[in-house]
Protein backbone atom coordinates (compact mmCIF):
# COMPACT_ATOMS: atom_id res chain seq x y z
CA UNK A 1 0.00 0.00 0.00
CA UNK A 2 1.39 3.38 -0.88
CA UNK A 3 1.83 5.74 2.08
CA UNK A 4 -0.52 8.28 0.55
CA UNK A 5 -3.42 5.81 0.34
CA UNK A 6 -5.41 5.34 3.48
CA UNK A 7 -6.32 1.82 4.55
CA UNK A 8 -10.10 1.42 4.81
CA UNK A 9 -10.89 -0.14 8.19
CA UNK A 10 -13.93 -1.48 9.96
CA UNK A 11 -13.04 -1.81 13.61
CA UNK A 12 -14.76 -5.06 14.58
CA UNK A 13 -14.68 -4.60 18.35
CA UNK A 14 -15.30 -1.42 20.33
CA UNK A 15 -17.33 -0.47 23.39
CA UNK A 16 -19.19 2.75 24.13
CA UNK A 17 -21.10 4.15 27.08
CA UNK A 18 -22.42 7.55 28.15
CA UNK A 19 -21.29 9.37 31.28
CA UNK A 20 -24.56 8.58 33.04
CA UNK A 21 -23.77 4.85 32.88
CA UNK A 22 -20.02 5.04 33.56
CA UNK A 23 -20.27 3.53 37.03
CA UNK A 24 -20.53 0.20 38.88
CA UNK A 25 -24.29 0.67 39.32
CA UNK A 26 -24.57 0.00 35.58
CA UNK A 27 -21.44 -2.08 34.99
CA UNK A 28 -20.25 -3.93 38.06
CA UNK A 29 -16.86 -4.56 36.42
CA UNK A 30 -16.19 -0.83 36.54
CA UNK A 31 -15.52 -1.15 40.27
CA UNK A 32 -12.25 -2.95 39.53
CA UNK A 33 -10.72 -1.09 36.60
CA UNK A 34 -8.55 2.04 36.35
CA UNK A 35 -10.59 5.15 37.08
CA UNK A 36 -10.05 6.64 33.62
CA UNK A 37 -12.48 4.07 32.20
CA UNK A 38 -15.21 5.34 34.49
CA UNK A 39 -16.01 8.32 32.33
CA UNK A 40 -17.90 8.83 29.12
CA UNK A 41 -16.52 6.83 26.21
CA UNK A 42 -18.58 7.79 23.24
CA UNK A 43 -18.16 8.29 19.51
CA UNK A 44 -16.41 11.65 19.82
CA UNK A 45 -13.83 10.09 22.14
CA UNK A 46 -13.33 7.20 19.75
CA UNK A 47 -12.85 9.56 16.85
CA UNK A 48 -10.33 11.43 18.96
CA UNK A 49 -8.33 8.22 19.28
CA UNK A 50 -8.55 7.23 15.62
CA UNK A 51 -8.60 10.43 13.62
CA UNK A 52 -5.01 11.32 14.46
CA UNK A 53 -3.86 8.36 12.36
CA UNK A 54 -3.19 9.63 8.83
CA UNK A 55 -2.85 6.09 7.45
CA UNK A 56 -6.33 4.87 8.42
CA UNK A 57 -9.74 5.48 6.93
CA UNK A 58 -11.96 4.16 9.73
CA UNK A 59 -15.33 3.84 8.05
CA UNK A 60 -17.13 2.50 11.07
CA UNK A 61 -17.17 -0.02 13.83
CA UNK A 62 -18.94 -2.91 15.45
CA UNK A 63 -20.35 -2.00 18.86
CA UNK A 64 -19.89 -4.89 21.28
CA UNK A 65 -22.08 -5.13 24.37
CA UNK A 66 -20.43 -3.88 27.53
CA UNK A 67 -21.40 -6.52 30.10
CA UNK A 68 -24.08 -4.48 31.83
CA UNK A 69 -25.68 -5.37 35.11
CA UNK A 70 -28.71 -7.63 35.41
CA UNK A 71 -31.18 -8.29 38.18
CA UNK A 72 -31.47 -12.06 38.29
CA UNK A 73 -34.08 -11.92 41.04
CA UNK A 74 -36.66 -10.10 38.91
CA UNK A 75 -39.17 -11.85 36.70
CA UNK A 76 -40.24 -9.40 33.98
CA UNK A 77 -37.79 -9.05 31.08
CA UNK A 78 -37.82 -5.28 31.54
CA UNK A 79 -36.67 -5.78 35.12
CA UNK A 80 -34.12 -8.59 35.01
CA UNK A 81 -32.54 -7.43 31.73
CA UNK A 82 -32.70 -3.75 32.60
CA UNK A 83 -29.00 -3.13 31.85
CA UNK A 84 -28.83 -4.58 28.33
CA UNK A 85 -32.13 -2.87 27.48
CA UNK A 86 -30.74 0.43 28.72
CA UNK A 87 -27.74 -0.15 26.48
CA UNK A 88 -30.04 -0.65 23.49
CA UNK A 89 -31.81 2.62 24.30
CA UNK A 90 -28.43 4.41 24.39
CA UNK A 91 -27.59 2.94 20.99
CA UNK A 92 -30.96 4.05 19.70
CA UNK A 93 -30.27 7.62 20.77
CA UNK A 94 -26.91 7.42 19.00
CA UNK A 95 -28.29 5.92 15.79
CA UNK A 96 -31.23 8.33 15.71
CA UNK A 97 -29.08 11.24 16.93
CA UNK A 98 -31.24 12.14 19.89
CA UNK A 99 -28.78 12.63 22.76
CA UNK A 100 -29.97 13.21 26.31
CA UNK A 101 -27.61 16.02 27.21
CA UNK A 102 -23.98 15.67 26.15
CA UNK A 103 -23.60 12.02 25.27
CA UNK A 104 -20.58 12.47 23.04
CA UNK A 105 -22.14 12.05 19.64
CA UNK A 106 -23.51 14.35 16.96
CA UNK A 107 -25.18 14.34 13.57
CA UNK A 108 -23.57 11.78 11.28
CA UNK A 109 -22.04 9.69 14.03
CA UNK A 110 -24.87 7.15 13.97
CA UNK A 111 -23.73 6.06 10.53
CA UNK A 112 -20.44 4.85 11.99
CA UNK A 113 -22.34 2.14 13.85
CA UNK A 114 -21.99 -0.48 11.13
CA UNK A 115 -23.28 -3.17 13.40
CA UNK A 116 -24.19 -4.05 16.95
CA UNK A 117 -23.37 -7.19 18.89
CA UNK A 118 -25.87 -6.91 21.69
CA UNK A 119 -26.25 -8.95 24.83
CA UNK A 120 -28.85 -11.70 24.86
CA UNK A 121 -29.57 -14.54 27.27
CA UNK A 122 -28.40 -17.93 26.06
CA UNK A 123 -28.97 -19.41 29.49
CA UNK A 124 -32.77 -19.16 29.75
CA UNK A 125 -33.88 -21.53 27.06
CA UNK A 126 -35.41 -20.60 23.75
CA UNK A 127 -38.44 -18.94 25.33
CA UNK A 128 -36.22 -16.75 27.49
CA UNK A 129 -34.11 -15.85 24.47
CA UNK A 130 -37.07 -14.97 22.28
CA UNK A 131 -38.77 -13.12 25.10
CA UNK A 132 -35.73 -10.87 25.48
CA UNK A 133 -35.50 -10.29 21.72
CA UNK A 134 -39.10 -9.16 21.58
CA UNK A 135 -38.56 -6.49 24.22
CA UNK A 136 -35.10 -5.63 22.87
CA UNK A 137 -36.48 -4.97 19.40
CA UNK A 138 -39.18 -2.76 20.85
CA UNK A 139 -36.72 -0.73 22.91
CA UNK A 140 -34.18 -0.40 20.09
CA UNK A 141 -36.64 0.67 17.42
CA UNK A 142 -36.50 -0.52 13.81
CA UNK A 143 -33.41 1.34 12.59
CA UNK A 144 -31.19 0.40 15.53
CA UNK A 145 -32.52 -3.17 15.64
CA UNK A 146 -31.63 -3.59 11.99
CA UNK A 147 -28.00 -2.95 12.96
CA UNK A 148 -28.01 -5.79 15.50
CA UNK A 149 -25.99 -8.48 13.74
CA UNK A 150 -25.48 -10.86 16.60
CA UNK A 151 -25.11 -11.37 20.30
CA UNK A 152 -22.38 -11.87 22.85
CA UNK A 153 -22.62 -13.78 26.09
CA UNK A 154 -19.64 -14.01 28.41
CA UNK A 155 -19.47 -17.69 29.20
CA UNK A 156 -16.27 -16.93 31.09
CA UNK A 157 -18.34 -15.87 34.08
CA UNK A 158 -18.66 -19.57 34.81
CA UNK A 159 -15.31 -20.15 36.44
CA UNK A 160 -16.20 -23.64 37.58
CA UNK A 161 -16.11 -26.23 34.85
CA UNK A 162 -19.14 -28.02 36.22
CA UNK A 163 -21.19 -24.85 36.21
CA UNK A 164 -20.02 -23.98 32.70
CA UNK A 165 -20.84 -27.39 31.33
CA UNK A 166 -24.17 -27.53 33.12
CA UNK A 167 -25.17 -24.74 30.78
CA UNK A 168 -23.27 -25.52 27.58
CA UNK A 169 -23.96 -29.26 27.63
CA UNK A 170 -27.67 -28.67 28.03
CA UNK A 171 -30.10 -29.22 25.19
CA UNK A 172 -31.69 -25.84 25.99
CA UNK A 173 -28.42 -24.02 25.31
CA UNK A 174 -27.78 -25.80 22.04
CA UNK A 175 -31.39 -25.19 21.00
CA UNK A 176 -30.99 -21.45 21.56
CA UNK A 177 -27.95 -21.34 19.30
CA UNK A 178 -29.32 -23.72 16.67
CA UNK A 179 -32.95 -22.62 16.50
CA UNK A 180 -32.95 -19.23 18.23
CA UNK A 181 -29.93 -17.84 16.37
CA UNK A 182 -30.56 -19.91 13.27
CA UNK A 183 -28.49 -18.58 10.43
CA UNK A 184 -29.50 -15.02 11.25
CA UNK A 185 -27.40 -13.94 14.22
CA UNK A 186 -23.72 -14.30 14.95
CA UNK A 187 -22.45 -15.42 18.34
CA UNK A 188 -19.44 -13.68 19.87
CA UNK A 189 -18.03 -16.25 22.25
CA UNK A 190 -16.64 -14.91 25.50
CA UNK A 191 -14.28 -17.38 27.09
CA UNK A 192 -11.07 -16.60 28.89
CA UNK A 193 -8.21 -19.05 28.88
CA UNK A 194 -6.05 -16.89 31.12
CA UNK A 195 -8.52 -16.32 33.94
CA UNK A 196 -10.90 -19.19 33.33
CA UNK A 197 -8.66 -22.00 32.18
CA UNK A 198 -7.64 -23.84 29.05
CA UNK A 199 -10.66 -26.10 29.44
CA UNK A 200 -12.86 -23.18 28.36
CA UNK A 201 -11.18 -23.35 24.97
CA UNK A 202 -11.71 -27.08 24.75
CA UNK A 203 -15.35 -26.64 25.63
CA UNK A 204 -15.73 -23.99 22.95
CA UNK A 205 -14.65 -26.49 20.33
CA UNK A 206 -17.29 -28.83 21.67
CA UNK A 207 -19.98 -26.14 21.57
CA UNK A 208 -19.20 -25.27 17.95
CA UNK A 209 -19.31 -28.92 16.98
CA UNK A 210 -22.63 -29.62 18.65
CA UNK A 211 -24.30 -26.45 17.44
CA UNK A 212 -23.22 -27.03 13.84
CA UNK A 213 -23.80 -30.76 13.75
CA UNK A 214 -25.92 -31.77 10.79
CA UNK A 215 -26.92 -28.25 9.78
CA UNK A 216 -26.61 -26.96 6.22
CA UNK A 217 -24.11 -24.13 5.84
CA UNK A 218 -26.74 -21.39 5.64
CA UNK A 219 -28.25 -22.40 8.98
CA UNK A 220 -24.94 -22.55 10.84
CA UNK A 221 -24.32 -19.88 13.43
CA UNK A 222 -21.21 -17.83 12.70
CA UNK A 223 -19.08 -18.03 15.83
CA UNK A 224 -16.84 -15.03 16.37
CA UNK A 225 -13.90 -15.74 18.62
CA UNK A 226 -12.14 -12.89 20.31
CA UNK A 227 -9.15 -11.92 22.30
CA UNK A 228 -9.81 -14.28 25.12
CA UNK A 229 -8.52 -17.18 23.15
CA UNK A 230 -4.91 -16.44 23.77
CA UNK A 231 -2.56 -18.10 26.19
CA UNK A 232 -1.44 -17.12 29.66
CA UNK A 233 0.97 -14.48 28.53
CA UNK A 234 1.48 -13.61 24.94
CA UNK A 235 5.24 -13.67 25.40
CA UNK A 236 5.41 -17.05 27.07
CA UNK A 237 5.26 -20.15 24.98
CA UNK A 238 4.30 -22.80 27.52
CA UNK A 239 0.77 -23.05 26.25
CA UNK A 240 1.60 -22.60 22.62
CA UNK A 241 1.04 -26.22 21.82
CA UNK A 242 -2.36 -26.27 23.39
CA UNK A 243 -3.34 -23.08 21.65
CA UNK A 244 -2.10 -24.28 18.30
CA UNK A 245 -4.12 -27.42 18.59
CA UNK A 246 -7.10 -25.44 19.71
CA UNK A 247 -6.87 -23.21 16.68
CA UNK A 248 -6.63 -26.18 14.37
CA UNK A 249 -9.52 -27.93 16.07
CA UNK A 250 -11.85 -25.02 15.87
CA UNK A 251 -10.99 -24.62 12.21
CA UNK A 252 -11.79 -28.16 11.40
CA UNK A 253 -14.71 -28.35 13.81
CA UNK A 254 -13.34 -31.66 14.87
CA UNK A 255 -13.02 -32.57 18.46
CA UNK A 256 -10.23 -34.93 19.30
CA UNK A 257 -9.38 -36.27 22.67
CA UNK A 258 -6.17 -34.99 24.06
CA UNK A 259 -4.70 -34.05 27.37
CA UNK A 260 -2.78 -30.89 27.91
CA UNK A 261 -0.28 -32.61 30.15
CA UNK A 262 0.52 -35.34 27.70
CA UNK A 263 1.09 -32.89 24.90
CA UNK A 264 3.19 -30.50 26.92
CA UNK A 265 5.36 -33.35 28.18
CA UNK A 266 6.05 -34.28 24.61
CA UNK A 267 7.80 -30.97 24.18
CA UNK A 268 7.21 -30.30 20.54
CA UNK A 269 3.87 -29.87 18.85
CA UNK A 270 2.68 -33.17 17.47
CA UNK A 271 0.59 -31.97 14.62
CA UNK A 272 0.28 -35.47 13.24
CA UNK A 273 -2.03 -36.36 16.09
CA UNK A 274 -4.28 -33.48 15.28
CA UNK A 275 -4.42 -33.37 11.55
CA UNK A 276 -6.56 -30.62 10.19
CA UNK A 277 -8.91 -32.10 7.71
CA UNK A 278 -10.06 -28.85 6.21
CA UNK A 279 -9.84 -25.16 6.76
CA UNK A 280 -12.48 -23.13 8.53
CA UNK A 281 -15.85 -23.23 6.95
CA UNK B 1 -11.21 -14.73 14.92
CA UNK B 2 -10.64 -11.20 16.09
CA UNK B 3 -7.16 -9.83 16.08
CA UNK B 4 -7.71 -7.60 19.07
CA UNK B 5 -7.00 -7.06 22.72
CA UNK B 6 -3.31 -7.99 22.69
CA UNK B 7 -2.43 -5.21 25.08
CA UNK B 8 -4.41 -6.91 27.80
CA UNK B 9 -1.85 -9.71 27.74
CA UNK B 10 1.47 -7.88 27.60
CA UNK B 11 1.86 -6.14 30.92
CA UNK B 12 1.23 -2.51 31.73
CA UNK B 13 2.57 0.20 29.45
CA UNK B 14 3.09 3.80 30.44
CA UNK B 15 1.90 6.72 28.33
CA UNK B 16 5.38 8.20 28.34
CA UNK B 17 7.00 4.89 27.47
CA UNK B 18 4.85 2.86 25.07
CA UNK B 19 6.14 -0.47 23.88
CA UNK B 20 7.96 -0.17 20.54
CA UNK B 21 6.02 -1.61 17.61
CA UNK B 22 8.89 -3.99 16.83
CA UNK B 23 8.69 -5.44 20.35
CA UNK B 24 4.93 -5.95 20.09
CA UNK B 25 5.40 -7.68 16.74
CA UNK B 26 8.04 -9.96 18.24
CA UNK B 27 5.76 -10.97 21.08
CA UNK B 28 2.68 -11.49 18.97
CA UNK B 29 4.24 -13.29 16.06
CA UNK B 30 4.21 -16.85 17.45
CA UNK B 31 0.48 -16.56 18.01
CA UNK B 32 -0.30 -14.78 14.78
CA UNK B 33 1.65 -17.46 12.91
CA UNK B 34 -0.96 -19.93 14.09
CA UNK B 35 -3.87 -17.67 13.23
CA UNK B 36 -2.57 -17.05 9.73
CA UNK B 37 -1.90 -20.74 9.20
CA UNK B 38 -5.16 -22.16 10.47
CA UNK B 39 -7.71 -19.38 10.24
CA UNK B 40 -6.12 -17.63 7.22
CA UNK B 41 -6.80 -13.93 6.45
CA UNK B 42 -10.24 -15.03 5.23
CA UNK B 43 -11.22 -15.64 8.85
CA UNK B 44 -9.35 -12.92 10.73
CA UNK B 45 -10.69 -9.46 11.51
CA UNK B 46 -9.04 -6.43 13.05
CA UNK B 47 -10.55 -5.09 16.27
CA UNK B 48 -9.23 -2.53 18.71
CA UNK B 49 -11.16 -3.35 21.89
CA UNK B 50 -11.26 0.42 22.46
CA UNK B 51 -11.40 1.84 25.11
CA UNK B 52 -10.41 -1.26 27.07
CA UNK B 53 -7.17 -1.29 25.04
CA UNK B 54 -6.16 1.80 27.00
CA UNK B 55 -6.00 -0.27 30.20
CA UNK B 56 -3.20 -2.57 29.11
CA UNK B 57 -1.81 -0.26 26.45
CA UNK B 58 -0.42 3.21 27.05
CA UNK B 59 -3.01 5.52 28.56
CA UNK B 60 -4.21 8.77 27.07
CA UNK B 61 -5.62 7.46 23.79
CA UNK B 62 -2.34 6.36 22.26
CA UNK B 63 -3.37 2.72 22.27
CA UNK B 64 -5.66 2.64 19.25
CA UNK B 65 -2.94 3.92 16.94
CA UNK B 66 -0.29 1.72 18.52
CA UNK B 67 -2.43 -1.41 18.09
CA UNK B 68 -3.24 -0.44 14.52
CA UNK B 69 0.49 0.02 13.77
CA UNK B 70 1.41 -3.21 15.54
CA UNK B 71 -1.15 -5.25 13.60
CA UNK B 72 -0.04 -3.63 10.34
CA UNK B 73 3.61 -4.42 11.06
CA UNK B 74 2.78 -7.97 12.13
CA UNK B 75 0.77 -8.92 9.07
CA UNK B 76 3.40 -7.32 6.86
CA UNK B 77 5.65 -10.19 7.94
CA UNK B 78 3.57 -12.67 5.97
CA UNK B 79 3.76 -11.01 2.58
CA UNK B 80 0.00 -11.05 2.12
CA UNK B 81 -1.65 -9.70 -1.00
CA UNK B 82 -3.55 -6.43 -0.65
CA UNK B 83 -6.79 -8.43 -0.97
CA UNK B 84 -5.75 -10.61 1.96
CA UNK B 85 -4.80 -7.58 4.03
CA UNK B 86 -8.18 -6.04 3.22
CA UNK B 87 -9.85 -9.17 4.58
CA UNK B 88 -8.23 -8.48 7.94
CA UNK B 89 -8.92 -4.74 7.96
CA UNK B 90 -12.58 -4.97 6.93
CA UNK B 91 -13.54 -7.85 4.60
CA UNK B 92 -13.90 -10.60 7.16
CA UNK B 93 -16.03 -8.38 9.42
CA UNK B 94 -18.24 -7.40 6.49
CA UNK B 95 -18.82 -11.05 5.63
CA UNK B 96 -19.19 -12.44 9.15
CA UNK B 97 -21.52 -9.72 10.38
CA UNK B 98 -23.24 -9.19 7.01
CA UNK B 99 -22.39 -5.48 6.81
CA UNK B 100 -22.69 -3.08 3.91
CA UNK B 101 -19.49 -3.03 1.85
CA UNK B 102 -16.88 -0.35 2.49
CA UNK B 103 -16.47 2.56 0.12
CA UNK B 104 -13.24 3.51 -1.59
Strand order of the largest sheet of chain B: 1-2
Binned, the helix content of chain B reads 40-55%
The helix/strand class of chain B is mainly alpha
Separation of the first and last Cα atoms of chain A = 29 Å
The strands making up the biggest β-sheet of chain A line up spatially as 1-2-3-4-5-6
The strand count of chain A comes to: 6
- β-sheet strand percentage of chain B: under 5%
Runs of chain B in which pLDDT lies below 50 for 5 or more consecutive residues are none
User: What's the overall geometry of chain A?
Assistant: globular
Largest sheet of chain B: 2 strands, parallel
Oligomer: heterodimer
Helix percent of chain A reads 25-40%
Number of helices of chain A: 9
Mean pLDDT of chain B equals 87
Structural class of chain A: alpha/beta
Domains of chain B, number: 1
Poorly predicted sequence stretches spanning 5 or more consecutive residues of chain A: 231-235, 254-281
Radius of gyration of chain A, in Å, reads 20 Å
